[in-house]
Amino acid sequence: MTFYEWRTQLRVHHALVLLAEGHDTTRTAYACGWANPSGFIAAFTDIIGTTPGRYRTLRDPRPRSSWAPSGTRR
To answer: Rounded to an integer, what distance in angstroms lies between the CA atom of residue 71 and that of residue 51?
Structure first.
């Protein structure tokens, strides 16, 4: 592995953490050292296999809904 490949993987790993915390793609791209979001999206997709937006949607830590099945009221 070259230094460039290693550095890119490290940056993408940091991006995974930020996206899982709910940060948007643009903020994550700049925080991880990319000059623009499109370069970040391309590198992320090459390594992870999905776009940062899709990853963030799947890992969204916010609670979904407060729906409860009927008959569970107190």
So the answer is: 40
